Request: fold
Amino acid sequence: MAGIDKALHDQYRAAFSIFDENDNGSISQTEFAEATRATGRNPSDKDIEAMFADADSDANGNICFDEFVALMEKNKQDPQAQNHELEASFRELDVDGSGAISKDEFRRVMTKMGQRMTDKDVDDFFDAVDTDHEGTISLAEYMAALGVSD
Reply:
């Protein structure tokens, strides 16, 4: 994809895979709503519909990876509006308050939110997001994966 480097592309791909629960290569409005709310936001159904329609540039009822990247890049342009919400969602995932999200914490919280993830899903997500390869996800890595610099 033009305009973004490979590391950011990989982070977007990992984030996309979290939204794409059924692994069909696109994000439905239901998947979009669940994943958006899982990041700590609580938009109304009407707001979800508007955000989804804005992201679904070809109006086919699904968000493909390219549309997802465009959405992430658009949101990246106004990071201050997201930082507070994303930091709150990070704290929810960081169950033990260590300042980093472990695979076990991530898996437990995602399961609790109804996001079924295989060990491979978790490993793939961490491979893309854990850029320092310490085995945990820091706030900076989390924010970068969601397209916002801290």
In short: The helical segments are 6-19, 29-38, 45-55, 65-76, 80-93, 103-112, 119-129, 139-145.
